[in-house]
Amino acid sequence: MALLPRLVHGTGHRLSRQLFSLPDLSSLSPFSGSTGGDGRHQVYHERKIFPYTRKQLYELVADATSYPRFLPFCTDARVLRKQSEPDRSHMDLELTVGFMSFKESYVSKVTCRPYESVEAVAASETHLFKSLNSVWRFQPASAQSPHSTTRALSEAHPQETSKAAAASAGPDSCPTLVTLDLSFEFANPVHAAVSATVFGQVSKLMVKAFEERCVDIYGYGKQ
Predict the structure, then answer these.
(1) Per-residue pLDDT reduced to its tens digit, 149-200
(2) CA–CA separation, 131 vs 107, rounded Å?
(3) Residue 172 is inside which H or E element, if any?
(4) What Å distances lie between residue 105 and 17, 54, 160, 176, CA to CA?
(5) Could you say which DSSP state residue 8 is in?
(6) Per-residue pLDDT tens for 41-94?
(7) What gap in Å lies between CA 51 and CA 173, rounded to an integer?
(8) At residue 117, what are phi and psi to the nearest 5 degrees?
(9) Residues ≥6 apart with Cβ < 8 Å to 20
(10) What are the DSSP E strand ranges found in the chain?
């Protein structure tokens, strides 16, 4: 997922960067010293084995209009344009994100490669973010890999595990390694400092929310 228009403070008044210039507060940012020359560029990598097929997992992520139902901080999603090619499809996706007292809408360029990956890149710099990119990838995992996702969830809800066989039916029935690469850079260190506690965990929250969405749609995967 990624960003375009306009930052709105909780009071409803727009913040315009043209009204004043911010001092250089990069030394005060909790992101100082991390990847990127100014300390604001953040890169996260998550990976987890899911007991579902690549087709099932890909279809959940490619269903962009469902994002507000499960992705953290996403409050609205609308497909503006869609184009299909033999081996991939492209979308212009308008997303609205909200967290703390901030709210912003933006357009993301999304490229979907069936059963392989879903990549989203912010169409342009926004008031809140200088950049915001994400890539979900789906790769076959070893059949001997532990299904930690399944084990924890099935222990909590043993009556639901019977859904696994139907959920994993089909030729692509092996467990799947899901990786999420997320990178973003705030437009200024003030936003970085205010948002540190929220976005410092956002990649983990996204994977957890995706895991719960899988259970809602497909039940608990094969043991």
Answers:
(1) 544 444 454 444 334 433 443 446 669 999 999 998 887 777 777 666 666 7
(2) 12
(3) none
(4) 17, 30, 37, 32
(5) B
(6) 788 999 999 999 999 999 999 999 999 999 988 999 999 999 999 999 999 999
(7) 9
(8) -160, 160
(9) none
(10) 41-50, 74-84, 89-99, 102-113, 117-122, 129-140, 176-186
140-157 confidence digits (pLDDT tens): 987 666 555 544 444 454
Q: How far apart are CA 52 and CA 219, in angstroms?
A: 10
Residue type for position 130: K
Q: How far apart are CA 40 and CA 94, in angstroms?
A: 24
How far apart CA 182 and CA 192 sit, in angstroms, is: 16
Longest dimension (CA), the chain: 60
Q: Which amino acid is at 188?
A: N
Question: Regarding predicted confidence, which is higher, 42 or 222?
Answer: 42
DSSP state of 135: E
How far apart, in Å, are the Cα atoms of 36 and each of 20, 33, 135, 170, 192?
25, 8, 19, 44, 13
